From TrEMBL:
UniProt xrefs under PROSITE patterns: UVRD_HELICASE_ATP_BIND, UVRD_HELICASE_CTER
Pfam families: PcrA_UvrD_tudor (PF21196), UvrD-helicase (PF00580), UvrD_C (PF13361)
Protein name: DNA 3'-5' helicase
Family assignment from sequence similarity: Belongs to the helicase family. UvrD subfamily.
Gene3D superfamilies according to UniProt: 1.10.10.160, P-loop containing nucleotide triphosphate hydrolases, PCRA, domain 4
Amino acid sequence: MDVSHLLDQLNDAQREAVTADEGHVLVLAGAGSGKTRVLVHRIAWLIQVHHVSPMGLLAVTFTNKAAGEMRHRVGKLLNLRPDGLWIGTFHGICHRMLRMHAAEVGLPETFQILDSDDQYRLIRRVIRDMELDEGEFPARQMQGFINHHKEEGRRPGDIECFDHAFQARQLAIYQHYQDYCERSGLIDFAELLLRTLELLRDSDARRAHYQDRFGHILIDEFQDTNTLQYALVRLLAGSKNQLFVVGDDDQSIYGWRGAKVENVVHFDRDFSPKVVRLEQNYRSTATILEAANRVIDHNAERMGKNLWTEGEKGEALKLFTAFNAEEEAEFVIARIQDWMEQGGRASETAILYRSNAQSRLFEQVLLREEIPYRVYGGLRFFERAEVKDAMAYLRLVHNPHDDPAFERVINLPARGIGERTVALIRDHARRQGQSLFEAARSLCESGGFTARAGNAVAGFLALIGELTDEYGQAGLGEAMQAAIDRAELADWYRSREPADRAEAREENLAELVRAAESFTQPFEDEQAGLSPTASFLAQAALEAGEHQGERWQDCVQLMTLHSAKGLEFPLVFMAGMEEGLFPHQKSAEEPGRLAEERRLCYVGMTRAMQQLVLSHAESRMIHGQTNFSRPSRFLSEIPAELVEELRPGRPRVAPAQSHGGAPQDAEGLSLGTTVRHPRFGLGTVVTIEGQGANARIQINFESAGSKWLVLGYASLERV
Ligand code: ATP
Ligand code: MG
């Protein structure tokens, strides 16, 4: 069989990795050097040349989107659909295994995944039930505490307690929360991993089964695996299976969530793999690559790489200083319009930022300019209130003991079930060790409610019962639609919200029905015996908004730097390059965090293929306050000769109302005037644009160099 197509488009080092014989392989290489490509070709190579059945392969990626992409690329290389091949995220794969062995790990078949928002609410509930002070035990912190321990594989009993009353209470909260989850058939993200680990560790039969099945395990973005994931990999590998692992220590950006870049070193120690280094970058222009390399050079303790490219030099990076965040957004969108006018596509452009809240301003301008866009991450589609409301009905139909779903919709839409009634149900449930649904039913039967509340609760239980009977077996789309209609959700939003808000919610509900209708269950899920509803609900909880806006193929991509990992775009904007925002202010608090922020900067820069545009704003509203900030230190780490500073055009946006210094009159200053700035010191005015407080002036400072400032903010003093 001719397999040259699997090797032609690879360089020597890549080919060496793809065709490696028996044994483990570690591909350690910088951004854009073809690690993911190598992994895809390796899968195809194993199937076509070594005749490994797709069923014998397990490939792990970081997002569902990457998994879909990988499946598609393997299919293209092989010219057939690789059915039976398990490709997914660690969470997705663990979910599937747990569904197949629910009983063995003590889970009801209908167990539900608790997303982080539901988890937070549940923890808050537990803290209240325990009558602890929420000031002393903030739910958010307890959520971090619990997840952290789970990610390290620790149950409450495994945590050493030094007899501190405080610590003992934290452990009690963890334990209560866990009991609650067990009772209600709920499983949080970390639990997905931990349960699977326990399943494989404690059951010889299961471990043997999966070890026999997955002769080859391939993992992308290995630098961001956490302790549990690494432990899982070791269990699955056993003593005879082959691991093919690719990663880049410079792109480890999830340390804050428990990822351990040391896993790369551990892997080398534990498995003695053949190590392949890729050094040629195929993604970016030489200029972009050089800039990114120079930034990451500022980190100590790197494994060290030498990344080069044969690509063209390309354009200089662009740097834009906006006087506020609104102007930054206007600037970025105007550049995207230029790109499109010159024949570029919207989907070739990406706006990357450090924090989700930054997307709003860009969205506003994109909407106004009628440019289609898609926001990844952010408030994910499945996290929107109305979508969660409707999904809660579907969850209850699937599993009536899903307490968070029950709490969410027992009085939504309002059916006259007050907080007192709910408290009664909760209390009964706690005492009887029942789910809320069961407690509500037994209270109804025993006449435990007032007549009015009793009727209302009975009505709700009947509604869930009807949906279960009539639509339990129906198609997903139909069941979803029925839940929305019977619960009269649309009427409910319309009755309490302005028309445009309600309409937006209805559109999202319609979108949800479409999503349910068009949901195709992964073949592997079906094979594993999962119901389509279970697959759908799991996907909703696990995916990172990746299917949002799928109808727009050609749209601008907006996402955080974190979610840009592994992707590439011809034109990349990195916005909000300001101290405090990026590097994030938190990085000042913990050692190691700054280095992680710098790796994030490296990840962002290396997404760009042809053009990289950096921007920062001198002022930005944060929590209703105008903040002034200095440019990010990362900007100063890029050699000046690689950067072209763009001159701002005329100011198009008025600065925010509240501001620092008293307005000054531009007329008072003229070209050549010497001024003193509180931070930048002495300088000379070289340009003035606009008038009054909004005027923008460019000043050549003796020590700080050339700056554009807004007169109203600048607190300049004539000397
Ligand atoms: P990251 O670290 O960002 O995940 P990566 O190392 O996984 O990057 P890939 O995404 O696999 O890199 O590849 C980067 C780009 O280079 C892709 O567009 C890929 O198709 C291209 N590429 C990789 N190897 C080659 C090659 N030998 N010839 C031509 N193009 C290549
Ligand atoms: Mg990659």
